[in-house]
Design a protein that fits this description.
Layout lengths: L1 E5 L2 E6 L4 H20 L18 H13 L18 E9 L5 E8 L3 E7 L6 E8 L3 E5 L7 E7 L2 E8 L2 H12 L25
Antiparallel strand pairs: 1-2, 3-4, 3-9, 4-5, 5-6, 7-8, 8-9
Amino acid sequence: MFLCTGSMIEPRIVCCQNSADFDMWVQHLQHQIKMANAHCPVSPNNNISFLVPCDEQWKKRELMRHLWCNTILKWEGKPIQHLGRIQYLTMVQVAGSCTGDSEERLLILFPEDLLFLSVDKDRTAITYKGKLPLTGIQAKEKSAVLGRLQFEITGSLTERILITCSTAEDYEKWLFYLQNPEKILDPLTLQPPPIIPKKSRQHQ
C-alpha cells in the first residue's frame, strides 16, 4: 500500500493486490508528478515574491489566500483548510538547539496549531516544514541581546526552538498569542474557503 497526500486533499491509502502492481503504480505516479511539475509554468498567481516578507497587512491577507488555494510542497496530514482560520503569520528566523543554524521560515498561527513553512529562494514555491500543537508548547521571552527580538519555544514534542522576529510588533504579538492562546483574535483574519463535501453513497 502507499499514501497519497496533498495540502488540499484528505490523505488516501491505496492498497494494491500484489507487489508488481505496487511497483508499477508508485513508479508511474512519481514519473507523472515529476513531469507535471516540470511542464507547469510559473504564473503570476504562483509567484509569491511580492507577498514576502508579508510586512504589510494587505500582503498578509493575500498570502493567506495563496496558502488556501495553492499547493504546499511535501504537505503532511489533513488539508490546511481543516486547520481553521489563520490568526497570524510572519516571516521569522528559526534556529534549533541541535544545529544552532538559523533558517528563514513562514510562521503561521492557527487556533490549535503552529505551522512552519519555507519559501524557496526564487519566491515561487512554499514547502511544509512541520506543525506543533499549541497545547504542547510554551513560549518564553528571551533577554534582549544586541537588540534581537527573540523568544523560545519549548515542549515535550519538540526540541528547543529559537525564534527571531524582524519587528517589535511581530515579537510582541507572537509572545502574546502563544502565551495567551485563549485570547487570540485578529480583525484581519480571513475565513478559509469551504471544503467541498464528499458525495454521500447512494443505495441502489
